[in-house]
Amino acid sequence: MITGIIVLILLSVIIGALNASEDKINFHGHKSAFKKIDEFWKVKFNSKFYFRHFFSEDSWRNKYNQRHYENGIRRVFTIKIHPAFTDWFHFSKSLRLIFECSQLIIFGFVAITFQTLTSVILLPIGLHITRNLSFNLFFNKILNGRKQKNTSK
């Protein structure tokens, strides 16, 4: 069951990273690493393709026809496109929820197997700390955009 604990820790790191990417693109997208990705993405796809704005701060508008809510939800052959496939924020949130459910199931197996105070009380606390450390690392360090060097003296 040591493997289960290692998987739980890895899932905590992934969940923290996905949560950081959601917050970074939603609140600080203009000064994050997503700005460069968004610029590359806009060059790669033309303006008519809705993935053009997949990594931008206002990517939530992608779920609407012509990116405006008055035009209704975007549809493909009368089927609504799920928001998870319209922008990075919703895509990473969907992945995060899948990983959180997986983590809960694996934790149940680990807790049943060990049936100790450590697995029932201390392991969730450790996983929460791991998730928060991962969130802080990704949000404050990894997903920050490159700082402009000050050339003036």
Spatial arrangement of strands, main beta sheet: 1-2
How far is the first residue's CA from the last residue's CA?
A: 59 Å
Radius of gyration: 19 Å
Portion in helices: 55-70%
Overall number of strands: 2
Domain count: the total is 1
Low-confidence stretches: none
The secondary-structure element order is: HHEEHH
Query: Structural class, judged by helices and strands?
Result: mainly alpha
Shape: flat
**How much is the average pLDDT?**
78
Summed up, what is this model?
The chain has 153 residues and is an all-alpha fold. The protein has helices spanning 2-27, 33-44, 88-114, 117-142; strands at residues 75-76, 79-80. The chain has one domain.
Features:
mainly alpha; 3% strand; 153 residues; 59% helix; two-stranded antiparallel sheet; 4 helices; flat
Description:
By secondary structure, the chain is mainly alpha-helical. It has one domain. 59% of the residues lie in helices and 3% in strands. It has helices at 2-27, 33-44, 88-114, 117-142; strands spanning 75-76, 79-80. A two-stranded antiparallel ribbon has the order 1-2. β1 (75-76) and β2 (79-80) form a beta hairpin. α1 (2-27) runs antiparallel to α3 and α1 (2-27) packs parallel to α4 (117-142). The radius of gyration is 19 Å and the shape is flat. The protein starts with a helix and ends in an 11-residue tail after the last helix. The model has no long low-confidence stretch (mean pLDDT 78).
